[in-house]
């Protein structure tokens, strides 16, 4: 199947960033100079401490990044004379900056705040230590500017494992998702799943703002899973861990019989295990999805059933004293005739 | 693989009724069908997908077709948008 193009946010306003960092991460940020944060945009996921630029070298100044002034930069400014200080500060203000954040409770001496305001650059202060603040803000920006991809399928949390059910239209993805919800598992999104590359190895999935937990069941129309099954039946986000590809049974295709060779597929350069699931009449796909999840859990905790079986067979073969025909699993029935 | 650019012409935009018309029309063809708007791409055979586009009047959409009958599917879909889904323009 053709894969859609990945996309990502190009810019967020400083106002949006500050609002989210305040409300979601509990960071205290106070605007010092009254410049309008709505008009300034952040376009870069990285942060910058402009010590060298303040000292006079601006050749490689990454001015488009959020500028962080910690203790070092603030002390450096304070050790100068008042005229030098303003000159150094206006040197970096000559560039287009998104905003300036003073960490560790630092503040700017007065002509500086006004100068930044004149240039339209908001100046914030936070009591949080520099490295801690930079870590928090970078985490937020990484999330905002992460690569995203829309996937056609259903994402369900089954025993804590995020299964992405995919396959051609009309194969019954939504029906399986509904069946899983009925059995106590939790729906993240149906039809449209937005995958976000959180780190090199982690792919997070969620629904779209509009269609969250709505589902189309052919023959019925649109149903709202949250309204019907309640809050226990849904989740807002889940890491995508296993891909389940549903498709019509094809006699020519080779299906996994033992499960020794793990197939993987790459989504946004994250390798995920794939289970190809042929659909045939009388097959309970829901139960198989539960087994896929449990098997993934077992493997995650170090138990690989196929590997264990293989070792048993190898031990038997090597001992050279295998029985002529397979032995019964129990030696004798111990007067237990149940 | 075929790409066509279309504009939403009817006043009300792609609401529930046009969305279901798009999906019904797309399902008549074997080809895969995707709609892209501002980098956001969805499967055109899914009603929820089409509705999440929230395509208003004047919005331009890229229609992508892939399969044995892609040319026919593209023509049919283009005609549907051209007619404005039979609604006031």
* Mean residue pLDDT of chain B: 90
> What is the tally of beta strands of chain B?
4
Rounded to the nearest angstrom, the distance between the terminal CA atoms of chain B is: 30 Å
Strand order, largest beta sheet of chain B: 1-4-2-3
Q: How does the SSE layout of this entry go?
A:
The complex is a heterodimer of chains A (338) and B (89).
Chain A: E1 12-13, H1 14-25, E2 30-31, E3 41-42, E4 47-48, H2 51-55, E5 66-69, H3 71-78, H4 82-93, E6 100-102, H5 110-118, E7 123-125, H6 130-144, E8 148-152, E9 154-158, E10 161-166, H7 173-182, E11 186-189, E12 192-197, E13 203-206, E14 214-217, E15 221-224, H8 225-229, E16 237-239, E17 242-248, E18 264-267, E19 270-279, H9 285-300, H10 305-319
Parallel strand pairs in A: 4-5, 5-6, 6-7, 10-17, 17-19
Antiparallel strand pairs in A: 1-3, 2-7, 8-12, 9-10, 9-11, 12-13, 13-16, 14-15, 18-19
Chain B: E1 2-7, H1 16-27, E2 32-37, E3 40-43, H2 47-52, E4 60-66, H3 70-82
Helix pairs in contact in B: 1-3
Walkthrough of the structure:
The complex is a heterodimer of chains A (338) and B (89). With 338 residues, chain A is α/β, with parallel strands linked by helices. Chain A folds into two domains: 12-144, 3-Layer(aba) Sandwich (Udp-n-acetylmuramoylalanyl-d-glutamate--2,6- Diaminopimelate Ligase, Chain: A, domain 1); 148-306, Rossmann fold, CATH 3.40.50.300. Chain A is 32% helix and 24% strand. Chain A has ten helices and 19 strands. The mean pLDDT of chain A is 88. Chain B is α+β, with helices and mostly antiparallel strands. The model of chain B has no long low-confidence stretch (mean pLDDT 90). Chain B is globular. In chain B, strands 1-4-2-3 form a four-stranded antiparallel sheet, covered by helices on one side. Chain A binds chain B through residues 1-2, 4-5, 7, 150, 152, 169-170, 190-192, 208, 210-211, 214-216, 222, and chain B through 1, 27, 32, 34, 36, 39-43, 45-49, 51-52, 54, 64, 66.
């Amino acid at each position: 199947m053709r894969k859609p193009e990945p996309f990502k946010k190009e810019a967020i306003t400083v106002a949006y960033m500050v609002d989210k960092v305040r409300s979601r991460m509990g960071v205290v940020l106070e605007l010092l100079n009254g410049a309008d944060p709505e008009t300034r945009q952040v376009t870069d996921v990285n942060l910058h401490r402009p010590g060298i630029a303040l000292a006079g070298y601006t050749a490689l100044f990454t001015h488009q990044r959020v500028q962080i002034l910690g203790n070092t930069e603030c002390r450096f400014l304070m050790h100068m004379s008042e005229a030098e200080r303003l000159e150094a500060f206006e040197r970096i203000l000559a560039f287009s900056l998104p905003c300036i954040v003073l960490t560790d409770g630092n503040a700017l001496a007065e002509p500086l705040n006004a100068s930044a305001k004149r240039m339209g650059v908001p100046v914030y202060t936070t009591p949080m230590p520099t490295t801690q603040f930079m870590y928090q803000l970078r985490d937020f920006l990484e999330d905002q500017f992460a690569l995203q991809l829309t996937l056609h399928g259903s994402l369900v949390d089954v025993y804590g494992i995020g299964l992405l059910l995919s396959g051609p239209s009309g194969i019954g993805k939504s029906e399986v998702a509904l069946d899983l919800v009925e059995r106590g598992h939790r729906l993240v999104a149906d039809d449209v799943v937005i995958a976000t590359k959180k780190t090199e190895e982690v792919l997070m999935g969620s629904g779209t703002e509009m269609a969250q937990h709505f589902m189309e069941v052919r023959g019925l129309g649109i149903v709202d899973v949250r309204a019907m099954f309640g809050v226990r039946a849904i989740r807002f986000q889940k890491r995508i861990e296993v891909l389940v590809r549903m498709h019509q049974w094809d006699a020519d295709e080779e299906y996994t019989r033992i499960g020794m060779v793990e197939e993987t597929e790459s989504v946004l350069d994250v390798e995920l295990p794939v289970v190809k699931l042929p659909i045939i009449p009388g097959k309970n796909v829901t139960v198989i999805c539960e087994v896929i999840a449990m098997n993934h859990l077992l493997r995650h905790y170090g138990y690989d059933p196929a590997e264990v079986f293989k070792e048993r067979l190898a031990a038997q073969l090597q001992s050279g004293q295998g029985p002529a025909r397979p032995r019964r699993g129990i030696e004798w029935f111990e007067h237990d005739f149940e | 693989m075929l790409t066509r650019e279309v504009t939403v012409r009817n006043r009300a935009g792609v609401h529930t009724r046009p969305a279901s018309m798009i999906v019904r029309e797309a399902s008549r063809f074997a080809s895969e069908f995707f709609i892209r708007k501002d980098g956001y791409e969805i499967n055109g055979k899914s009603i929820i997908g089409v509705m999440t586009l929230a395509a208003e009047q004047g919005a331009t959409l890229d229609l992508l077709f892939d399969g044995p009958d892609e040319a026919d599917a593209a023509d049919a879909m283009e005609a549907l948008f051209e007619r404005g889904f039979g609604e006031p323009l």
